Amino acid sequence: MKKITAIPALSMGLLMSLAASVAIPARAAPDRLTVVVTDEPKSLDPCDTDLSGNSRILHNNITEALVNLSPKDGSVVPSLATSWRQVDSLTWEFKLREGVTFHDGKAFDANAVIAALKRGQDPALACEVGLATLKGLKLNAEAVNPTTLLIKTDVVEPILPNKMSALDIGSPATPGDTKTRTPAGTGPYKLVAWTPGQSVGLVAYEGYWGDKPAIRNATIIWRAESAVRAAMVDTGEAQIAYEIAPQDGTTGQDHAFPNAETSLLRIDAQIAPLNDKRVREALNLAIDRDGLIGTIFHKDAQKAMQVVPPSVFGFNPDIPVWTYDPEKAKSLLASAKADGVPVGKEIVIYGRIGIYPNSSESLEAIQAMLADAGFNARLEMLETSPWLKRLLKPWSKDRQPSILQTQIDNAEGDAVFTLPNRFTTDGNQSTITDAGLDKLIADGSKATGDERKRLFQQAFKYIAVDTVNIAPLFHMVTIARVAKDVNYTPDVQAGNEIKLKSISYR
Amino acid sequence: MSFTYFLKRAAFAALALAALMTSAFFLVRLTGDPVNLYLPIDASDAARETMRLRLGLDRSLLAQFFDWAWDILSLDFGMSLWHNRPAMDVVLEALPNTLALGAIALALAFTAAIVMGSIAAVNAGGWIDRGVNVLSQAAASVPDFWLGLMGVLLFAVTFRILPTSGFGGPIYWVLPVACLFARPFGTLVQIVRGSMIEALNATFVRTARAKGARDGRVTFVHALRNALLPAVTVSGDLAAQFAGGGGVVEVVFGFPGIGKLLIDGILKRDFAIVQASIFAVAVVIFVINILVDMLYASIDPRVRVE
Lengths: 506, 306
What we know:
With 506 residues, chain A is α+β, with helices and mostly antiparallel strands. Helix content of chain A is 28%, strand content 22%. In chain A, strands 1, 8, 9, 10, 11, 12, 13, 14, 15, 16 and 17 form an eleven-stranded mixed β-sheet that branches. A four-stranded antiparallel β-sheet of chain A has the order 4-5-7-6, covered by helices on one side. The longest helix of chain A is centred in the first third of the chain and has 20 residues, at 2-21. The radius of gyration of chain A is 25 Å and the shape is globular. Chain A starts with a helix and ends with a strand. Chain B is 75% helix and 0% strand. The interface between A and B is large, with 45 and 48 residues.
């Protein structure tokens, strides 16, 4: 008997001696930080920061833009430009910061911005910034002197400074005909090495124009599994881990923060029975949003009434949140049926695997809620590629009635980054064809100030209340696990930016 | 093994490789167009069309195939869309890691299985045999994903003696190897045990005992050598599976191997990566098959590789 109990004791002894002999860092050095994210960046080219995985490493760490957006209210704040003004309706002037150098020693000036702009919009390079934020914009930049830049637009562009926050400026030595894997920017950190499949190493740039960061060496690594990312903070292998799944993020070190994403179901309102407004209203009334919060969705998620979070310019606070009323949903369906609407027709719910934590579970619950209200709904979970085929036009004319799980990100802070592509006739993801809404969005895009806000608010109300072609779900949150001795509170931009320079040890 | 035999095997392997690569070319393209995955959702139709033209996806599938086949003949596997580097360079960075991981796990599993399987067979029906049976059944059936996460929680988070994940010195290999070890160990123990029991009851073993050979010699020389053949056959299959990557284990531990590369390549419709990975893995499997044949011949003198 004694022999048998000796075996676990011996094993424990062996483990302890192994523990003593192996050096696993329990705590990082005070000037070193390791951050763990979900995926390896696709590109470290300064022109590809429109993709969040790239941006997290590059933006405001290695490379910087002319301006930043405030995480508090989305307002434009200085970065490499110290001030800006609209000279006339088609011209903006930017005054550039003096004494700034790139990591490769080249000086930052107006010509560097012009080169970055040209590169970002070069169709042959297919930069993310040119394909998304600066899409369709004809910009003609001109250096008045090294610290003054004029940018002319072909159409009125009232939020050009907001858009310039997406253009990270790389060194003029960045190759013009190909993407770079070794970016040189003006940011507080320069790239040490990108080891494919393993890590990206950064070191503080001594010649940085701003305050010197407390963290001198930063390493960004990636792990696909949420439990492993969370465990890495516990063991001291990493100090910050992003995108922790709700079931793993239950400790005091887990910080939930709004991530500028709004989850929703896009209703294909062109196909019967979903072309009947009563059916679309019934669909919204059948979803028990309160029941989903704190169970499948994080408890800090906010019920959404429109597709942008309150921090976005143009958000309409007066749109009512849908209540859960299955009885009313049933009566609306009955009334539609009485008028000959084929409410019994099968509706497909297209979901995307992993679009957010518990994405499949959320749709299984919603499918059951819809069935309770009398819908004939079938769930189809898709991986990204086939899901994109459902999201983006062109669609077959004889397609099945469907609702599509999606989420909309608006970290840029203005409604124009959300509305045109998703809700106008020409939008590549839009199921609406409505000349009135098209005009509203077009007018809003050109307007400024209160008029812009009013028009966008009207557009959001029209989409949510008048046409009802969406079932808004939640303004989402993401969980980050932060080591106890690290001073860092993730904000709404943390999905796109790590902000290493603001992080320190307690 | 004669040179002619090798040439013959190589010729058959080349034919099989050609058929495999052709299937891979068409199958991977059935999974969908990569353009939507690579461009931002807000990209214009014109930008999508430009990319399709740049990738040659506007041309007929047959025209694309002939171009691709010509490139493959000159061992040009094209550029990886996701990594923006030559696909074979990316594959050749990951493949040695996977091969080393698989080789270590399989060698350990094979050795441990021989020892445990033989001990169980010698004590067939006894409590040691029953214990080994339960252990090997559990090892063969435990999901490696679960095992990996439990390993992280126990050895990294609780005991703090191993890193959770990553790639580096020997210590980073312990958990991935342990996870990959379990299934082949369980399977091989069962096989070795079964074939050892059969061998221990065979007439040549009785003859050896009658000649006065010691127990250890009878078990590990006379019986084991004969009992090894099925284990070698199964190990060859397992080695071929491992050459394709540690799959889930690589994902859990962030181990930069070809399994994770291939999974990501498929999900991201990175055709060049998928094709280059399949090619590299197929060549490795061909080499493994040759090695297994040679091993067979060295274990069993009755086998002639020709």
